[in-house]
Amino acid sequence: YVVPLDPHPAHDMRLVYVDPEEELVECGGRAVFALAEGVTPEGWAEVGHIFQNDQGTFLKVIEDPKSQKMYAFVDIRSGEIRRRQERGVNTVFMQWRVEGMDSGEKRTVTFAELRQAFSAQG
Length: 122
Known about the structure:
Oligomer: single chain
Helix content: under 10%
Largest sheet: 5 strands, antiparallel
């Protein structure tokens, strides 16, 4: 599964199934998120919000509507998909954006640099 990320979040973010035979290009990094000031939750985080609990920092997305689980939670540090993370939420980030990719070289690679690198590959 993948979650399409634009530099700005969508309110209908969902897991998208990718056929294992489909050709994907590994970017070799993880998304770097810029989070706006967090708020104390007054209920549940909405789809597209990022939130923190004692287990980590998660992006709430829609899971396959045909499954028994309505939502999935993507750990923004590891990219792992987890279930049942809405308990004990202490901060919700309703506004965020993706700045680029962590290249592992102590700097963030911007989307412009990624596009340029992939277009050069042909």
